[in-house]
C-alpha cells in the first residue's frame, strides 16, 4: 500500500505497465483497493485504460470489493475511462455490476 511520488501503489504500477501476473500476486495479499493516485485513479481506473489488461482483471477487482463508482480528479469513473478507450469488453463487465450511470 506504499505510494510513489505520484501516489501510485505497486498494484497501480503493475496495471499501468501491463504486468497482469504481478497484479495477481499483489491482489492475493489483500491490498487497499480504495487508494487513489495523485490524479485520483484507483486500480480499477488503471485496469480500464489499456487493452492488454483483460476484462478478467476488472472482474477480479470488482469481486475483491473495489469501488466501481469512485471518481478521479477529472470526475471520471472506471466506466468513463473504459468507454473513452473503446474497451467494450470491460464496459460490459462494469455494466453487469450496476454502476451509477
From TrEMBL:
<dbReference type="Pfam" id="PF12796">
    <property type="entry name" value="Ank_2"/>
</dbReference>
<dbReference type="Pfam" id="PF00023">
    <property type="entry name" value="Ank"/>
</dbReference>
<feature type="repeat" description="ANK">
    <location>
        <begin position="6"/>
        <end position="38"/>
    </location>
</feature>
<dbReference type="InterPro" id="IPR036770">
    <property type="entry name" value="Ankyrin_rpt-contain_sf"/>
</dbReference>
<protein>
    <submittedName>
        <fullName>Uncharacterized protein</fullName>
    </submittedName>
</protein>
<keyword id="KW-0677">Repeat</keyword>
<feature type="repeat" description="ANK">
    <location>
        <begin position="74"/>
        <end position="101"/>
    </location>
</feature>
<dbReference type="InterPro" id="IPR002110">
    <property type="entry name" value="Ankyrin_rpt"/>
</dbReference>
<feature type="repeat" description="ANK">
    <location>
        <begin position="39"/>
        <end position="73"/>
    </location>
</feature>
<keyword id="KW-0040">ANK repeat</keyword>
Amino acid at each position: 500500500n506504499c505510494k510513489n511520488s505520484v501516489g501510485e501503489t505497486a498494484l497501480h504500477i503493475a496495471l499501468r505497465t501491463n504486468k497482469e501476473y504481478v497484479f495477481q500476486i499483489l491482489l492475493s495479499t489483500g491490498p487497499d483497493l480504495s487508494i487513489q493516485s495523485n490524479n485520483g485513479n484507483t486500480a480499477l481506473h488503471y485496469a480500464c485504460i489499456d487493452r492488454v489488461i483483460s476484462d478478467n482483471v476488472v472482474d477480479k477487482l470488482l469481486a475483491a470489493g473495489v469501488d466501481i463508482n469512485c471518481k478521479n480528479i477529472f470526475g471520471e469513473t472506471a466506466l468513463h475511462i473504459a468507454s473513452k478507450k473503446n474497451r467494450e469488453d470491460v464496459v460490459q463487465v462494469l455494466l453487469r455490476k450496476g454502476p451509477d450511470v
